[in-house]
Amino acid sequence: MSPRRPHATLLVLLLAVLGTAPRAHARGEAPLTLEEVLDSVRQQHPGMEAARQGVATAEAELLSAQGGFDTLLKARGVYVPFSYYPSERLDAVIEQPTPLGGTRLFAGYRLGQGKFPPYYGEYETLSGGELRAGVEIPLWRNRSIDKRRADVAKARLRLDIAGFTLAGEQLGLQREAAYHYWDWVAAGQQLAIAEAQYSLAVTRHEQLARRVAQGDIPQLEHTENERALLEREAERVAARRKLDQTALKLSLYLRDGEGRPVRVSTSRLPEGLPMPDDAFEAELDAWLAKALRQRPELRELALQGEVVQLDAELARNQTAPAVDLGVAVLRDFGRGPESLRPTELQASLMLDIPLQARGARGQARAAEAKRAAVDAKARLTQDKVVTEVRDTLAALHAAHERVGLAKSAADVARRLARAELARFEHGATSLLFVNLREQTAADAELKEIKALVDYHRAVVDLLAATAALEPGRLDAL
Question: pTM of the predicted model, to two decimals?
Fold first, then answer.
């Protein structure tokens, strides 16, 4: 038999609410499911829209960084009509930076007509002008990395970071939405208990009135029930208010197609809170591995470290000498001096040595310090994630145990209430003790609901701690 995955039981529990076909209520409306709420958060919540704009901003910044490799067209014209050397000159060049080792390609056209002084003889061309093309190759500085390539690489990393920021925002919003969903379901159950207690007191009030009239019981018992009736009516009002309040809070996460909050009807309340699986098992190591692999903030910090590392590499690169090799081919066309007709091959070597390079060295040190800070923050965040997973898993085990105890306590309290009522029917006790037993039973049922809510919240906490509430992840657990 294959070993059971640690998340299998949680999936079964979630599917009880998320995947089970809902039964129609009195008004023909299907019960609201947790998946419907989470889907509304993903699609319509304003917080998600704000986070998506962060991704759009990062995409725009990537496009801007890629503009560093745009083709450039440069042109310059000089006209000298009044001079001992009247002349006309035109120079145009197209440059194309490339990510291939910082290589730059260029092609140009030059035209020089008129008279030129001997020291500017290079301005002269044949009548058709001069075409040229060439390449410049960095041999040291800017070969492995340069500002253009670094900007593009960092922009891509920041786009990934924005994606994880979006995932983290979604995870937090879905966690809050799940909390409010279970609070709303629990409030519906609490109202049902209050309504049942009130209805019981109303029915008993009429029965006791007849028995008092017949002389079977003293008037005091009828008055005691009247007190209980008023008390239970007040509890019913409070429970109804609690349900309204939780529905309003849930409406911030449940929205229509236009993004407006939807106050869900009580007719869409599920029939109850799902009971936990008695066979629940989970291995801490598996959950920890899942969290460390998937938590958005950890992956975001890892990418931030890569961004700072690029800054450090670029700064160190700028401290090196620039040794650039240039090769160009030139050819004149048209009429003119024979000395301008042969095809010309030019090779050049440019040397640029920073004697102090304090700016680049300072930037390199700053980048290294930032990298150390990011690494320290990543270690702290990882420790927090590990602690959170340990705590949520322990809370889940404790909540699972509490549910069983609360259910047993509620069963015992209901049996005691029925037994006390039977004693009252035989005149062996007073209605005061019957009401106390019933109130104790109702309190035990409320504690059972509270334990169930805590259990489902613990499930949500564990799934959120392991980043398992992201879109498409629920079915993949």
Answer: 0.80
